[in-house]
Amino acid sequence: MEMMHDKEAEVELFRSGQQKTEAEVVALKEQAAASEAEVAALKVKMEEEGAASAVEVADLKAKLQEHWLECVATENKRKEAEDAAKQKKARAAERRVAGAKAQRGPAPPAGEAVAVRGLQYAAPYDETKITWLKERYAGIPLSQVLAEMWRLHRGEQPLEEAVAHWRAELAAGRVLYRKRKRAIDDPYQFIAPDPEALVEVGSAVQIVRHVHERVVRAVKIKVLFENESMVAIEKPAGLATIGETMGANSLMGIVRRQTGHYGAEPGHRLDKPVSGVLLLGKSR
Question: 278 with 243: CB under 8 angstroms?
Answer without folding.
Answer: no
